[in-house]
Amino acid sequence: MRKPYALLLLLFLLLAAPAAPAHAADNGSWSVYPLSSGVSERPYFYLSADPGQTIEDKVVVANKTAKPLSFRLYAADAYNTGRDGGFAVRTEKERMRGVGAWGKPGKSRITVPAHKSVTVPFTLRVPEDAEPGDHPGALVALDERVDTGDGSLAVGVRRAVGARVYLRVSGPALPAISVEGVRVAHDQPLVPGLGDSTATISYTLRNTGNVTLNPRVELRAQGLFGRTLLARDLTKIPSELLPGQRVRLSEPWRGAPQLDWGDVTLTASAKDTRESAGASFFALPWLVVAVAFAAGVVGGVLLVRARRGRARPSAPARPSRRALPTPFRPRSSPSARP
């Protein structure tokens, strides 16, 4: 009986800098890149079109192995991963709205001989009602083989390589960025001064415009009386934030105050857009919290007892018996003696 395998798709995309050669989108076995225009190599597909326009271009798939490889070609939309904001593309079975819906390779399946390359034309038909702005995507070459490794795990891997497509549809360009859901979580030592105090600042970075952004994020923290506790530019942010995408990110704050009250402010900026958001924090060591809680409990108990003591009525005094009036007896005078 054949062992069932779950499929895991590994997708390698062109992540190199623009100065990299055009064949940089590869995984060591094959590569996918735009056909050179004859003047210079293209690391990506940079395309621009009007609504209703059709674009013709060509993609190259090169086999670097010593045996033939068969691939399935398709166009896909791009998005930012939720984990770190990296550039990723949809699988073939997912719903496409942009490049993935408008692009179509001349062949959906190809076989590339060993150490050879195959050039495939593709057509990109932009609809009349296409929204202006950026529509990122990729042309993907998916290996039709399922790599099961040594068979010890019931996991099959299908590998793919995609060349990025940056399409801009003419019309108003509206860059806009926002910072949402700022949270500050402290990790305090039990005893003040004994141990490190850290905090984690989490937030959502969102592209609310219609063009791709290269964001910068500045972090500032202020304590009581406006003291600056932290001021730095963040580095763990996506290099490209695609239109309509949002990414949940976090930043560690080592050496956070152990006893303070202040505010954290995050300012995101890109070309022609800037937005800030923040949150308040109250840092208090656990031992202080425990002592304050215990003192509050004890004080509450004593207060309740004191109130009960004042509210308890005293025993009423027994009324004294009224003395009965003594009957008047007239004093008799001595009788006269004869």
Architecture per CATH nomenclature, i.e. the level-2 architecture of the largest domain: Sandwich
Count of runs of 4 or more consecutive helical residues: 2
* Mean pLDDT figure: 83
Could you tell me how far the N terminus lies from the C terminus, measured between alpha carbons in angstroms? 159 Å
From the spread of the alpha carbons, the general shape counts as elongated
Strand content: 35-45%
Number of strands: 18
CATH level 3 topology of the largest domain = Immunoglobulin-like
The CATH C-level name of the largest domain is: Mainly Beta
Counted up, domains total 2
Largest sheet: 7 strands, mixed
Helix content: under 10%
C-alpha Rg (nearest Å):
39 Å
Q: What structural class should be given to the helix and strand makeup?
A: mainly beta
Order of helices and strands: EEEEEEHEEEEEEEEEEEEH
Q: Which parts are unreliable, with pLDDT below 50 for 5 consecutive residues or more?
A: 1-8, 12-23
